[in-house]
Design brief:
The protein is of the alpha+beta class. The longest helix has 14 residues. The chain has 2 domains: about 60 residues, Orthogonal Bundle (Arc Repressor Mutant, subunit A), CATH 1.10.10.10; about 160 residues, Chorismate lyase, CATH 3.40.1410. It is about 25% helix and about 35% strand. Helix 1 crosses helix 3.
């Protein structure tokens, strides 16, 4: 027996920045995430009235949720709540050691895949230079990777390292293994401190293609700068993650316990 949606929603209240369908999609995503799987959504005219939008706007919002795995359409029956096929944690853990995506997910038993999209030496942009304590236009190694879990795309990461300190990073095969473990193995790097900043962005056209989402979909943006015990920056990375299949977890140890 189908479960039906009941709602007292009275419309999108205030003007939203950006396209209206994105605001509708995000509100719908929050609503369906709290509903039982297989709940039947109301007909399009009802939802259009609730949100005060046209059918075209509503369909764009629903299309995004279907593509992301939150809804499923069944011919002749309607649109139902479903759940994304995978759900994994993206963890930056620094209780016992600083461990990145590959190490943590492998320890959890997941099959981690990496495609290196770019790997070269470039002049440091101002924001990267600031994070790494460099002068603008100092050379850095940039490594861009598409990371997947169990065959499904999870995030795109961009990592930057001082080229004069870590020259081997320009040629290392990063399609396997961990960048952090590479730094420990090849340079005996002391990864002692991590500063992590989490923000929200939207998928550009190229990112949407890589991550198998709709252009403009919300993404989690995680920026990490790792330093040694003397406070010297070693690596700065930022990752843009699909929020429907990722969680960001932080572990903090107090008093060395």
């Amino acid at each position: 027996m189908d479960v039906y949606w009941c709602s007292t929603f009275v419309g999108v209240a205030s003007p939203e920045s950006g396209p209206k369908y994105l605001a509708v999609r995000e509100h719908l995503r929050r609503r369906v995430s709290a509903l039982p799987e297989h709940t039947l959504l109301p007909p399009e005219p009802v939802l259009c009235d609730e949100y005060g939008v046209s059918r075209i706007t509503l369909r764009r919002a629903v299309d995004g949720l279907v593509a992301d795995g939150h809804l499923v359409r069944e011919q002749g029956r309607g649109t139902f709540v479903t759940r994304p096929g995978i759900r994994h944690e993206y963890r930056e853990s620094f209780v016992h050691r600083i461990a990145g995506f590959h190490s943590v997910m492998t320890e959890q038993g997941a099959q981690v895949g990496t495609s290196v999209l770019a790997q070269h030496i470039v002049p440091a942009a101002p924001a990267i230079a600031t994070e790494l304590g460099l002068d603008v236009a100092d050379e850095v190694v940039e490594v861009v990777r598409l990371r997947s879990i169990d065959g499904a795309p999870n995030h795109v990461s961009r990592s930057f390292l001082p080229a004069d300190r870590f020259p081997k990073a320009a040629h290392e095969d990063f399609s396997h293994g961990s960048l952090y473990e590479f730094l420990r193995r090849e340079y005996e790097a002391d990864l002692a401190h991590a500063r992590i900043f989490v923000d929200v962005g939207t998928a550009a056209i190229d990112e949407a293609d890589l991550l198998a989402v709709v252009t403009g979909s919300p993404l989690l943006v995680v920026r990490t700068t790792v330093r040694d015990r003397e406070g010297q920056p070693l690596v700065h990375s930022f990752s843009r993650l699909r929020p429907d299949v990722s969680q960001v977890e932080f572990e903090v140890s107090v008093g060395g316990r």
